[in-house]
Structures are given as C-alpha cells and as structure tokens.
Amino acid sequence: MPEIKSIVREQVVSASPDASLTELADLMDDEDVGSVVIVEEEQPQGIVTDRDITIEAVSRGEDPTSVTAADVMSEDLATVDIDSGIFDVLRTMEDANVRRIPATDANGNLAGIVAFDDFVVLLGRELKLLGDVVEAEIPPYEHT
User: Residue 94 burial (CB < 10 Å; 0-12/13-18/19+)?
Assistant: First the structure.
C-alpha cells in the first residue's frame, strides 16, 4: 500500500502555544496556508486554522492579540506516523473528522502534514494514469 511519504508536506508552518492569534494570522498570510501546527519541543500539540481564528476571536469580539493558540487549538489532536499507508491515513482523518493531519516520526516529532486536498490531487493523477492505460489499450474510435 502506498505510504503518505509520497504526498506529505515536510515544510510545515508551526508555532508555539503562546503565539497570539494575530501572530498566527500573520504567519498564515505570509506562508499562504490555512493552518498552523502548534508544537512544543518539536511535538505537535494542536492545530489552529483560519476558521478557528475567525470563530474564536473575530465573531466573539475577542482581542486577537491577547488570545493564544493554546486557547483555541484542537485539544484532541489526531496524528499519523510518517510511514502510514494512504488508506490508514484517510481512515484516521475520517474518524477524527479532520481535513488535515500532522505526520510524526518514530520519536513523535513533527515530520510533515497531509491535507485532504493532497489526496484529491493524488487521486486526479492516478485517474489520469489509469485513463492513459485504458486509452492505449482500446481501438481508436471510428467516426462516420
């Protein structure tokens, strides 16, 4: 079974739990991402998404400079091993009801992140290859 190593993003945008929501929003803007993995001593502790910032700070009238990542991050963080198979990762994501999931190495340190969109791109590539194989094996269409 293919492993997520083939699609995992190793350059993960991360921050500490004491980072303010303003700092996280600036980081997301600078890095053009929709989430930041919150780490302590290289180990993922949670994720803060742009949606979290919107709901937890903006819509509730909170001061985003005083609310921290620890205040809004997901507390029951699901992670997968970097050597996990693609189908196992998809099951874990479904069970946890998440669209992105950190991958960890054997020591539990952050090794990457994989998002649902990465699987969509992979599936598109695989379908194209499958289509190419099928198209090569069928006789050409005759138009009259």
Answer: exposed
